[in-house]
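Postdoc handover notes: sequence design on the structure in folder B. Input tokens:
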């Protein structure tokens, strides 16, 4: 009688264990599906934001190129008076050009930093 009781307890225990394992497995599958869905949404959001930042960068680059072209055009119209004045004219041309390039580099670093924050 003791053996029958033990095998009955063992069968009940085995059924409880299988039920717990199945419940854990089901919970894990649901969690995995939710995680995959969230990761997919995050990937889409990140891709959209990166695309927006790329467009913003392209727009800023276009604006900077336009400004630089205007500065270069103005600099081309500056007459050179003498050889001693030529150095002054060259410096006068380089200062705005360097400022424009510095602004471009600053904008690029700003956009790159925002992209890196997303990643």
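Designed sequence:
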């Amino acid at each position: 009688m003791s053996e029958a009781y033990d095998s009955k307890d063992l069968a009940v225990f085995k059924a409880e264990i299988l039920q717990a394992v199945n419940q854990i497995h089901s919970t894990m599958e649901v969690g995995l599906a939710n995680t995959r869905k969230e990761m997919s949404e995050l990937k889409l959001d990140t891709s959209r934001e990166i695309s927006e930042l790329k467009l913003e960068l392209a727009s800023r680059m276009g604006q900077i190129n336009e400004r630089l072209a205007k500065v270069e055009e103005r600099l081309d119209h500056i007459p050179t008076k003498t050889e001693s004045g030529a150095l002054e004219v060259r410096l006068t041309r380089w200062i705005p050009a360097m400022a424009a390039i510095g602004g471009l580099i600053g904008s690029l670093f700003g956009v790159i930093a925002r992209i890196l924050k997303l990643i």
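Context for whoever picks this up: The chain has two helices and no strands. Don't rerun without checking with the PI first.
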